[in-house]
Amino acid sequence: MPIEKQATGPKILRFLDDHRLQHSPANYAFVHRVLIEQDAVLKAEVERIVDGGFRIGPDEVARLAGETPAEPAPEHHGASQLDRLTLRVLDIIGDAASATGDLNRDLVSAAASLVGAAESSIRSVVSAMIERTTLAEASLADATRQAQSLRAELNALRTDASRDRLTGLLNRAGVEERLATAIASPKGCAIALIDIDHFKRVNDGHGHAVGDRLLRTVATELADSCQPHTVARWDGGAFLILMEDMTARDANAIIDTARVRLASRRLKVRESDAPLGTITFSAGISSSRGRAVPALIASAEALLDRAKNG
Questions:
Q1: Domain containing 106: what range?
Q2: Close Cβ partners of 300 (under 8 Å, ≥ 6 residues apart)
Q3: pTM of whole model > 0.70?
Q4: How confident is the model at residue 70 (pLDDT cuts 50, 70, 90)?
């Protein structure tokens, strides 16, 4: 049963199932070290044990887990966050299950002791049951607080995954999700695919730092000019504006206003105070008219290409 480099999440749980290991936080952390952090020493030892199709047992896991872990390899920010949150989910589930399981056993035991008990002992047994229930309630309340905190972190992670880090706008994945909802509306929507003219020339002539500042400036200008509509970073020097319940003709008027406002800006290179010149963009505007997302985007891309080359 050789070990292969696997992805996080379900693949780790599959490893646990393949080796008939309990789905516990300690076991999850152990497999994470082997498959994700690529602890070379630990991985080699596990591979030696499972060589020939053998399973690694709980005792061997406990023995190996007690060794000093190797320095973990660098991970992607989002992936490492998700792994830590997964471990917390398992911890919360384990704590809640332990609290309720212990309570059930204690209450059954206490109930059995009441059968045929003298009246003088009933009061002490009942008091112990109430105290045990109170402790279990406190444990479950703590698990609930942890779950609420975890939910907030997961929501923040989901929001972060749909945002462009440079501009703060929605990224391509984020706007495509909204677009799928918008085209299902009876009134449909229009989109404008916008590309900054000669953006490569700015990057090549002034450096990527200036190019990045220009992207942030254009992002802010588009967001202001096109509000309350959705503005997203598409890729490179391109942006997508989603305008719900709107025709292509009405959308064109909004984009023209944004074009005039941007061209009127007198931008300069911060480092040299040299003028950056007039910033313009080309646009392809298309309405949904019952089309699916890929067809709508393809239409806007074709119109954008015609605008840039025509």
A1: 77-161
A2: 191, 192, 193, 240, 284, 285, 286
A3: no
A4: very low
